[in-house]
Amino acid sequence: TELLQDSPIEMTPDDFIKVNDRLETSVDHVLAVGDITKYPLRIFNLDEVNCQHWQMACTTGHQAADTILRHYLGQIKGGCRSSKNDLYTTPFFWTTQNSQTTIRYTGYTRDAENVVIHGDLENEFKFVAYYIVDGYVRAVAQSKYDPIACEVAEVFYHKRNIRKEDIEHDVYGYRKYLDFKTKKPE
Question: Which residues form the FAD/NAD(P)-binding domain (predicted)?
Answer without folding.
Answer: 1-60
